[in-house]
Structure formats: C-alpha cells, structure tokens
Records
---
Amino acid sequence: MMPAQQIVEEVSVQWIKEQLSHFADLEERVLTAPSGKAGLLYIKSITDPQIINRSIIAPFYEMDNPAVYAEYLAAYPGSEEAKTGKHVLELMLSGYACVHTEGKLCFFEALKAETRSVSENMTESVTQGPSDALTENLAVNLNLIRRRYQSAELKMESILIGNISRTKVAILYDDSRVNHQVLDELRERLGTLRIDLLQASGELEKYISGDKMRIFPKTIVTERPDRVVFNLAEGKIAVMLDTTGFAILLPVIFNDFFVAMDDKIQLPFVGRFLKLLRITGVAMTLWLPALYVAFTSYNPEIVRVQIALLIAGSRATVPYPSFVEVLIMLLMMEFLTEASLRLPRAIGPTATTVGGLILGQAATAAGLVGNIMIILVSAVAISNFMIPLNMMSFSIRVLKYLFIIAAAVLGLVGVVVCLVGFTMYLCSQRSFGQPYFRMFFLDSLGTSGRQKGGGR
C-alpha cells in the first residue's frame, strides 16, 4: 500500500478506495454524459447530498465540455487541490468530495455541519442587551463576531489541533490593540501542543494555561459573542474552536471575572455598585463559615455578648464541634447544587428546593445543626452565585474549605494567615505573562483610556 506522503500525481481513486476500504459509508458514483465521464467519491455520513447534487452533479450535466467542468470545479469557492496522499485523506475525512475528471483529482468541500441554530445563551444570564450565544459551528461564530466588530484590524489565524479529531482552532485579535508578546506566547503553546482529541474549549483552556496546580482560572471561557467583542476591543485574544459553542479569552486579570456585560448598560455609578456587591459576596463566601468556626470554638470574646449567647443557645443541642457542623451543612449544600445541575430541567429546581427545605428543617428540629448555621449556609450559597462567570464561582466554592480548615486549627489567626496567603498567591500569578491581580475597576467597565482614545 502506498505511503500517505506520496505526491498526489501518484494518487488515484483506486488508492483512496484502498485507504478507506473499511468505510461502509464510502460512496462512489460515475457521472456519464455524451461529452464524457467523471468519477465521484465521498463519505456519506459527513457530506451534504444537497451540496453534492447542486454544486457537483447538476453542473456536470449542464456543461458540454469536460475541460470547462474541470475549470469550474477548480475555480469554485470551497474546492482545494491536494499536494500529498496524507492531505488527500485529511480532506476526505473532513467532508470533501473527490471528483475525478480530465485525469485530475479535485476536492470539493461538501461538509454536512449538524449544529444547532443560534439560540439564547444558557450559562450567563442577561437582563438587557443581546442574548444570542455562540454555536458549535465556527463559521457561524465568526459571523456573529465580525457583524459586531467591523474593523480591518480584526485578524484571524487558524490551526488544526488533535492527531485524531483534527479540530480547527481560530485565533482572533485586533492587531492594533493586542499585546504581541502574549500573541507569540499563545502561538508557541498551541504549536507545541500534542494531543489526540480536542472536543471542548475547557480542554484547550487546561492545556494552554500552563500552571496545572492553579486554583484560579487564567482565562475566561464564555458563550456570549458580545463579551468576546468587548474583550477584543480591550486588546485581548479570543480562541474559538469548531464543534464547541464557547470561546476562550486571554490574558485576563482577577477583576475580569466580576464584570457582567449588563454593567455596561447600567449607569456608571450603578455598575460600580453592582461590582462591589459581587466582590462583597465573594468575601462572604470565603469568610462567613470560617469566622463562624473561629468565633464559636476559639474567639467568642471578639463578638458582642448577645451574639455569643445567641450562637451558644442555637448550638445547645448540637453534639459535635462547630467545624463538623459547618462541614455537614456546606457539603449538603454542595450535594443540592450538583443535583440541580445533573437532574432533568423539568424536575431539577423543584426537587432541590424541596430537598433543601426538608433537610434544613429536619436537621434543625433534630438538633443536629443550629438555626444560625442554616442562615449562614443560605447566605454563603446565595453570595457564591453572584459571580457572573462559573469558572471563578467553582474556584471560590473550593477555596472556602481552606479557610474553614485554617479556622478550625488556629481560630481567627488561621483566617488572617489564610487571607494573607491568598493575597500573596494572587499577587504572584501571571496570565500569559501579565499580572493577574491588577484591580483596575474602570478598565473592566469599558471606560479605559484605550477606548476613550480609540486605540493606541
């Protein structure tokens, strides 16, 4: 059998059939007309029969001269000339039809893209503004982006990743605003990536972020085209995959994860107030359970006497330390959150709401947890859901347990030490070489000097 690297002149239809001999969906057709013949070879499962009939078969019978038909195929948008046998197989497996006429092989793009239409985004709620979401079709996603970003400076580069999946990855950036050092680093990381399968943006995000032991996300994964466009205008880079409806934005700073796109629509003062609420919610998620453990078990003298007596009264029947009480209730809340994500949408919200009410009421009535603990867990759950982007929300959900463990070991001192370590860790992080803990509130609300000045 001929090696796949042979020059295309030595490749015939018979050679392609031998290479794809075990493909039950391989289809061969012979087109016959008074003017001559043409051979057609394609894989039925990934090609569109309407494209083949309209753009390949019908023109053959309409043209009297086979040479003219060959020129038509070569000039038609979507046709491609293969250089090697390996390239021939890649085209066939990516949805191209092989047409053999006038002693030449022409490969015609006839891919059948089975994707959903543009729909409302599901992961990032919208109160005002556009609600359309990216799809699994890269061409559609590029259309959504370019309709909003009509600038000649918007550049796109393409690369194939995955030895088996051969996933097409597009890199979008504004050439006049992007940091070219970051762009070069991204190209290097993508160019050295050696994997077999790539099916989701989350997979690629893990591969290109660099630090495998990181706690916080170094990129933003979003399905909103308006967020992609806004970040492109801020000088960031967007990485988009075919077959997935999410884009990766980089580099990012810690503050970017607390910006909702609706903030741009609000009055400036209102937008800053809403962001302050989200950051306060993060602080409550991290500190409330830990402070409860510290004040209850180690440092009750810090709070007012009335509050200390109230906590002691609510825990009068609780048979174990506050550390165990907090862990039990937080883990139950984690179970309910995961169940709400996995259950069918028709019953998920109802089942988890009823389950949460029953468990909370029964645990309090049985004396296993105190009433204040129920209030605290509810406040923690609500404040965690205030973060606009799920990636940061998941990180904060995990990080709060580190604060609880520190409070259980050292009390309030442990909480302070954990907070200092948390701040130092953030200050040491980099996203593609850029400082991660830059807290520029104005930049993320679209009032930076770059946007005011219209570029560099």
---
Amino acid sequence: MRALCWAGADAVEVRRVPDPELRNAQDMIVRVRRSTTCGADLPLLGGRVPEASAGEVLGREFLGEVVEVGPEVRRHRVADRVVVGAAVACGACWFCRQGLLACCDNGTSGVTAEPEWGQPSAGGFGRPARLGGFAGGHAEFVRVPYADVGAFAVPESVSDDRAVFAADAAPAGWYGAELGEVAQGDVVAVWGAGAVGQLTAGAAVARGADRVIVVDDRDDRLRMVARHAGVEALNHRYVDVLAELRERSGGRGPDVCVDASGMPAEPSRWPLTEADGGAALREAVHACRKGGVVVVLDARPGVVDRFPLGALTDKGLAVRAARRRGATAIPELLARMARDELVTEHLATHRMPLERGADGYALFRDRADGCVRVVFTP
C-alpha cells in the first residue's frame, strides 16, 4: 500500500509499505478516508526526535471504513465508518480503569521512553516505534489495536471533514478546558490559535467562560478563531500581552491560562518562540491570576529551560498537563458534531491527495497560505 513516511530531517515522502495485518484478536483493519497533519509531527520533521527512524508511517488523526475485524471485536463490523482516537489503550489496565486511557500501560509497541520520562508512555498512531508508537493514518490502510476501546462509529449526519477532528484535536482542546476547570464567569486565555488552541477556546465558551482571549502571532488564525468561536484575539507582535490580559480581567489576570502553542519544527520558523518552546508557557505563568490554573497541552519533547518556578509557587498556581486526551470524550464530541454544536471542518484549510503529502506538510510546517490543518485523502 501507499503511505506517507518520515524520510529524515525535514522530509516526508510517499512510499510503498506492506499492507497491515491482524495481529491480535482485538485488532481491526481500517481503510482510511481522511487523515490530518498534526503539530506533534513538527519536532520529528525538524529532526528533533532522535528515536525516529526513516520509513515510519506518519499520521495521528484519521477516519475510515472498517474492512476486517478480529474475532474478539464486538462493537464494530465491516463497512462501519469510524474515527480512531490517537492514543492506543487496552481498556483494562489500572490507568484505563481510572479513565486515563492516554496513560495506558499496555497500549505500546516497541521500546518506550521510560528512561527519559520516568515511566513508560502510552502508544499512539504516527509516533516513532521506539516511543511506543504504531504506524499512522497517512496511509491507505491502518491496523487498529484494541478496536473496541479506541474506535467509534461516526453518526451518518457528520461529514468526514468534521469527524476526523474528533480523533485528537477536539478531545485535546476540550480536555484543556476540562483540566483548567473552566467555570461560569471565568476569564480564560489561550496561547496558540492552531486547531487545538481554537478548539480549547470553543470549549471554554461552551463551559460558560465570560471572556476568552486567544494569543498568537498570525492574524489569519486569530480572525478565524474570533469568527468561529466568538472570542477575543491578541497578536503578541503588536501588544503587551500581560498588560492587555490584566486589563481584560478586572486587574487580576485570567483565571485559567492554557498553553496550546505546541512545538515548532525549528526555532526560526516561529518568531518570538524559543528553541525549547517555553516562551508561551512562561508568559502564561506570569499572566495567570494568583491561585489560578495553568494548563499545558501538546507534545513537548525534551526539557523547557528557565521555567518561572518562583512565580508559580508565590502565586499559588496549579499546573496541569496532558499530551492527549484519550478516547473517553470522543462519543460526546461526535454527538455534539451531529447537533452542530461543534463545528470543525473550517480547520481543514487545505485538502489534497496523499501523493502531495510533502507539499502539505511544508504548508503546515511554515503556516503558509493561511494553513491551519491539511486533510489528506488516500
């Protein structure tokens, strides 16, 4: 089959790779209909993930049609249209039983990053095999382990272009608001107007926030989130963000600050963001009101230097972080999509065939031509 693979630093290419096969009784095979680019791929594309090997299939977020099921799969049948959560979880370990599917002990493939992070990480699609990952969704077919846990039928009324964002971007954004415990009347600030940041802002509005302010350096993205989520926008190139946020929150600072800025492929491609990806996080800590909550979303390989620990402790802030939500929120999000309460297809600013994967990732990496996400069709 054809698949979009990592080909070394800053390069992707379409290659012929073996068709996936059922390996376990709980597996199923999905024919991909849509897949999207993801910010978690950017460190890999920039050569900043040493565990990656050339030839690994990319793609964290995808949607498709079931073509084969293992003998123990109960919830899905051939021809079902499904969206698949980005995290691979067994549904039975201690973490899964607590609802922490993204922390699953068993959903891994290959060697994990335990030496770096202290504990093994959950597996995921489109991540390097040495980090516990599985072949991704930028392909014609994908093997889905633990299919009854991580895959969900898509309502007939929900389009492919809308539903594909239920795989990871929408759960991550809604998890950001949940981790921040956004409540009625809160002031919420979100750093980053990519797909996850925009969906975090929308989730904060849905939870009753009084004001939601999104901070970014791209006017096109800020206009998009203001139009679709009905929130306020700040371009940090032109304003003093800390002063503006203080002014818009009654002099206290936002109740909840969410860093959804992600990690750039290379420092030079995100002006005002440093190599460690910590500039937005530091600003969020300084902006947040005393006793507030700072939430960190997205993949952050390595370490972040010059973290303002003194501000964190003196202000009594709570910090919560997550790489991904896991699949528990997907059914609710699909239901919201079916009721038009969650609209996401505008985030697919570019659509192209998988053969143009290199062009798509160049657009996404450079945020060129107003690109927020590229959706591929095999």
---
Amino acid sequence: MPPAHPFDTSYLRDSGDEDKLKEECGVFGVVGVADAATFVALGLHALQHRGQEAGGIVSYDPEAGFQSARRFGYVRDNFTSQDIMQTLPGELSIGHVRYSTSGNKGPTAIRDVQPFFGEFAMGGAAIAHNGNITNANALRRELIERGSIFQSSSDSECIIHLMARSLQRNIPERMEDALRRVEGAFSVVAMTRTKLIGVRDPLGVRPLVLGRVGDGWALSSETCALDIIGAEFVREIEPGEMVVITEKGVESHFPFRRVASRFCIFEHVYFSRPDSILGGRSVYETRENIGRELAKESPVDADLVCPVPDSGTPAAIGFSLESGIPYAMGIIRNQYMGRTFIEPTEQIRNMGVRLKLNVNRALIKGKRVILVDDSVVRGTTSRKIKEMILDAGAAEVHFRIASPPTAWPCFYGVDTPQREKLLAATMSEDEMRDHLQVDSLKFISLDGLYRAVGEAEGRKAECPQYCDACFSGDYPVTPADQVKEGFQMKPAAE
C-alpha cells in the first residue's frame, strides 16, 4: 500500500536515517529587514537537517497584521513559491522546521506545525520551540481543567496557554512567567508586533545564536543558517538568557535561577551541521577530533577507513589521520534519495539501505575495512551495511563508533526509541559485536568524547559539563511525565 500520508516515510523504516536519532526542530527569526520571511525561509532551508516533516513561518506587517503559512515537507518545496512568500510581508518574521518528538507519533497534523500563535489583550504573539517539555502532560491537564482549549498535540502549545493565563504586563514578561513553569529543554524564538525574542532554558540544552544582518538582527538554532543569509555571527544566547530585540537594539537579562550549563553533547556528535560553530568550536573539527580519539582508544590493523555517509565522514577522516590507515569512500550515498518514486511494495521495502547507500565494490574487495559511524541505535542499519560490505568481497569488517553506546532515551528534544529498543540498553559491547556479526566493534569512551569536545580532563562525574543522558543515564532534569508513566531512572548507586 502507498503511504497513508504524503510525507510518511514509515515504509523506509530501517533503511538508513530511520535508525538514527532524530532532532525534532530548528528555529529561526529575523527583525529589521525588508521581506523578513524570505530571510527566514533561507534560514530554515539551512536548518532542514533538524526537521524534515513540516515547516512554518509567521510574519508581521503593520498593514497586513500577522500572517502565517504552514506546510508539510521540505522548505524548498514550499517556501520558494512566490505566491506563498507574498502572503508573508513585513520586517519581522519567525519560522520553524519540525520532526516530532512529542504529541502525535503518527502522520503529522497541520495543527501541530509551528510557530504557534496567540492573541492576547496586549496584542498577538507567535512562538517557535526547539526542545521538549518534560512536565507537559501535567501542565496540559492543569490547563484543560482550568478551561484552556488545546488545538494541537504538541507540548510546545503549553507555553502559549501559560502566557494567556499570566497576569504580567507585557508579552516578554508573560513569556518569562510561562517558562518558569516549564521543565525540560527549550530554545524559543518568539515575536510580537514590534519585538523578536529569544530564550534558552537555564541548562542551555539546545542551541540558539544571535546574528547581525544589515541593520537588523537574526536568531537561529545554528550558525550555518546565519551564513546563508549573509549575517554576521555575534554570539550565542547564554543558558538562561532572554534577549528582546527591537529597533532600539538588543536587551538582555537572565530571568531564571543560574545553574551549571548542560549543553547537549550529541549536538557535537551528530545533530548540528559540520559547518556550524558550537561553543566557539567548529563542529567539523570536533568530529575529526572524535575520530582521532577513537583511533587512539581502539586501534585495529586494517587496509581502509571508510565513513558511513554522511554523518560518519569527519570522524573517519580523523581516524585515518591518527592511525595512518588510508581514508576511502567505500560507501556512496545517493544524494537524491527522498521518498521512492514508485509504489513502496514489499520488494522495495526489503531493499532498505540499498535505496540510499551503495558499496564501492572495486575499492572494497579483498580489503580489511574499518567502518566509522556516528552512533548505533537499534543496530538494524549497521547490520545491513555490514552485509553489503561483505557481499562486496571485504575480507574483514570492523566498526568504530564516534559516540559511546546509546543506552538511554532522550527526553529533551530528541526522538529516541524506548529504552528496551536501544541495542546498548540490553547488550554489552561484545554482545553487540556478535549480534552485528562483525570482526570487531568499539565505541569511543565517554571521557574520550569529552576530550574531543575540548575537556582535556574528561568528564567530571560529580558535575558533568554536558548533557550526556543518552549515554550515561544521568538526567539533569527529571522527566516527570515519563517517570509517572513508569520510566525507570538509573539508580543513584550505578
């Protein structure tokens, strides 16, 4: 049967990206430039890797008022249309690209697509949220009992309803009031008729940066989206900081209690684009450093180092440089792979990874191959790639993974399988090696990963410098909703 929804890719389950952890969204906003929505569309295009299900843009023009457009699918297929962009006038605009981590896990409903908009006594406001609210279920129940009517299944809508119930005098203050009730992770870009607002949660789990574009300003999940509009990167929004940007400039304050930051370390490993800057560090260089650390920790005698495209490429280069083993493109990615252009029959489903990746047989045959990938989640893709490499005549297959074993689900904005479906949650490294049927399997250590991101002494167990809950089970914010539903936290003694 064809997909039930035009952008449903469930029939490609385990065909490549479906065995990767998913970032759920990217946010972008611009103020003080003509045709701001066009700049937002370009920014969202650069952030497409953070969410491919759907996208939305809201703009404000004094004559037209607030205008919005929300669409399923890629930015390039929707927000390059002149007909759509003409409906989004004004010098102030925000946007969002989405991959769901909460709410409806089936086909996305258009009502779940952000930005969300609310009309308040002092005027309208729109918000776009990157992250996940870990007490959303409790907040939603409370708000519904008090008369709120929800339009979506998204946790992010809680923020709008909390703002509506606040007694503060203006929208930025109401947003502060609302976000003090929220637990979990949030980087928010919002807008009123005159203001562009950016906020990060006190832990700074998800990224948010500030840029200068002409006489205006931009907020973005990543610096790569500033580059596409020719904006100058100014700085990162700090954990716990709120910036309110008007024609007068940028006002900054810190409405939340200060705590030690816990930025998501997986942003360095996989989520962010390699041409972005995080914490003053090139993501590409960090991933190359991860490969170097991996080569030091887990050397192996082999003929070729091959990346699993595309996310394993920088780490594979680092592994090659450190080990002296030649780097080679042993697996080629079909860059034009989207949804299959023919009906997804059972035969097409069984093709799986081959729809997206193909082995360079002439290079691989008879060689001892080191495959470098960013992570192992369920293990289904790793096993299929191994089979492809052996079918091409490889003598040996060694996996080197540029992150520690992913043994715990994320509740801060990443779509993670339930814990029992994570391979590392139920198997040791040796058991995973036997399950994947490879000659060797090694993950970078948690300390090695910390060294690669610039922490020379490794991870500080008493106060980790990053959020690494997906590897360690050490959750900086208790996922209250999940615990109430039966999720078992890691015992303190472990």
---
Amino acid sequence: MPSKRSAAQQTTKISKTSKIPAALHSLRGVKTWKEATDWLKIRGIEDIECITPDLAGVPRGKMMPTSKFTSNTSLALPSAVYRHTISGEYPDETGQFRYDSRDSDIKLVPDLSTLSVVPWETDPTAQVICDIVGSEGEQISYTPRNVLKRVVDLYRQKGWKPVVAPEIEFYLVATNDDPDYPLHPPKGRSGRSILGGQGYSIAGINEFDELIDDIYHFSEKQGLEIDTLIHEEGPAQLEINLRHGDPIELADQVFLFKRTIREAALKHGIYATFMAKPMQGQPGSAMHIHQSVIEINTGRNLFSNPDGSASKEFFNFIGGMQHYVPRTLVMMAPYVNSFRRLTPDMSAPVNTAWGYDNRTTAFRIPVSEPVARRIENRLPSSDANPYLALAASLACGYLGIIEGRDPTAPTEDTANEGEIDLPRGLLEAVALLESAPSLAEVLSPEFIAIYAGVKRGEFETFMQVISPWEREFLLLNV
C-alpha cells in the first residue's frame, strides 16, 4: 500500500504546479467554498479540524472527514462550552451569571480566510477557525472572537482601524506528570539545564535550535509569520514577536502559535507553558501589546498630528488605559497564577503609569517616528486569551478617546516601586469588571456576566487546593 504524503510534501508539489489557480497556492486562507474544496482536494487533505477559542483560549470544536466539511454540514456545539471553568467544571449561578435553561446549540461558522494545514499531523490534516452564531444565525455576543470583533467594529464606525503587534513570552520546561512537584528547566543540546540571566542570549536560543527550527517550520506551513525570536531573562524563557496588523488576524495568529509551540515542544519531549508564573522566583511571562490607530480613509496614524507631534487622541487613549485597564485586568490576567506575576520588584509593572521608553511603566511609549507612534500595554500575561486581552486593551483606549480622558504626566523615573495600583487578586478584579457600565456597553453585558461567573467558579475551585506553603508553615505552628 503506498505511503501517505505529508501535508508539507503536498504543499511542495503544489508550489511547482503551474496549472493550479494562484489562490490555491495560498498557505493560509481562501475566499470561497469552491476554492476551499479545491484547496483541500489538491493537498489530499483527509480530515479537517473546525476549531474556535473558548473563554480560556482553548481550542474547542469538531474534527471530520473533508468530504463532510465541504457538503454544507451544519456544525453545532452546546452553549455550555462557554460556561465551564479551565478545570472543566460548571460553576454555580452567581451575580448575573446564568445558564441557558435549554443548553441550546450554537453553530460553528468556518472563517475560510484561516484555512491552513496542521503540519505536525502524520496524515494530511487541515484546520479552520470558526465564528459562533446562534442556531438561527443570530449574533452571539459572549464568544471571544465575537467580543473582539465588536470592539474593532466600534473603531470602524468612527472611521478608524486599530493596529496591534503582540509579543508572547513562554517557558520551556521539563516534562512533569505530578502537579505537586515544581517545574524545572529542560536540558538543552549541551545536556545541561539552562540557567537564568540569558536575556537576548544567542547561546540560550541555540540550546534548543532543533525545537526552534520546528517552530519556524510549523509556522511557515500554516502561513504564520514570526517577526523575531529572543531568549528572555528566565531559564529557557523565550519570546516571539509578531508583525503588526489587524487585531482579529493577530489574535488568530497567537491562538495558533500557542498550539504550534506546544506541539513542537512535545515533539522534542518537553513542555512549552504559557503560565504567567510557572516557576517561583523567576520572571513571569507576559503578552505585551503594541497598539496604534489609523484613519481608514487617509491611512494617517491617529496618534500623530500632521506636524509630527502627539495628537489629542494619543493622550486620550493613554488616559482611557489608565482609567479602565484596572477594570479589565481580569481579561488580561485571568487566573490566580496571573497575579503572582504582578508583584513588586519583578519585571512586570504593578502600576497604571505611562512614560517614554520606560519599561517600569504599565504603558510604555517606544521610540519611533510619528508615523509609527504607538502605545505598549505591558500588563497582559501570556496565559490570557489573546482575543479577550486585545479586546480589553483596545476597549480601554477607545473609551478614553470617546470620553476625552486626560492622562497623568509621564513618569520619567522608576514606576515599579511603592504602592500597587492594580487589583491584587482575582475576585477583586472580577468585581471591578462588573462595576463599569461603559465597559458593559463596549464588550456586551452578556459577556461580562458569563465571564465573571466563570472566573468566580475558578477561584472557588482553586480555594479547594491546599498549598505546600500551608503545610509548611501552618501544619505544626498554629
């Protein structure tokens, strides 16, 4: 029996076939169902994964034969998929959080612009990111991709288009099948575990060069473009920077990159983790977000005046970030572990200050030409759902412009000392999100109700776990 060709081999053959329409050469995305059918057929794709992010950013969906996917099959999920915690539990109804009494179906609608191969699968397999609508095609406001689309559409109605560039940090760690034991860095090609203090070290990257080659290879086959890759300060902590672009496209890329990096690491017998604080005493992992806004008709950067000076909208955007980010922090730091990263005297900011090229502030203004003037939000952690983190950050800036909020004076000195200007825990952050009517209008009341209920449920689950600290200091002393 002839062996099956891999998706990568099939792509290579396709690229050399001149008779195939140009659109079908695309590594990522097609425009029509006819193109999708041909795209799948010429690659010999047997199965397709229809995936969508849940509240945590975990891929959910269905896998099916290609023939079924292209036969106008209706794809449905239970609405309860968006009402369970990261541990798979269904929390009690609290506040405005309620379950659908019928647990009605919601429908997966494939976004064909996201169609790509799954390069780590042995059999030719494709994937497509799906939007969610109701059983009758009505809009569903509480799913992460729809929340982000809602915020982007508010900008569009003003004649603006937000532009973002995420930077995602993550750790490589040795495999660990017992959650009671701390995580440790893996051994690199030298046979030794890498140590900390390797910021921007090329040698640190080279310790895992075969794994990194696979990350690049997998990314290329999916049509995903990495701008740069560096070694961060923590032991075996890496950072991937993505090119700036449309928020929905970049959220899709982060969603797929997380999956890609995990799969590449597993191929080499180690884990990749996006936990905000995986190892005690080591730096946390962030998802910094660079943001700007352009006028759709002119292409002008809204943050810069014609003479190159900073515009009123630029300062109002910062003012909105300062006022509203503490109220949306639970969307950028969504777990108890996330708040372990936001502690004084570490690399993460614990303030709402802003400054020019000042990494101790929450909102840093990088050095740039007026055309590239942007604001970096340094608060989100890498465990955040990228759709929700981007939606929250852009919503804060949008409200700042609409409400004409002025920022404080820029901070020139170290801003990461003294008092903490942010919620200190998950429940406090949830309460702040629920207390802001303006955010409910921008993000949707239904989303906030569901998200807050799930986060409270996750906190209650966490409180059932007895930590080593409690056993060490309370067991025989109290």
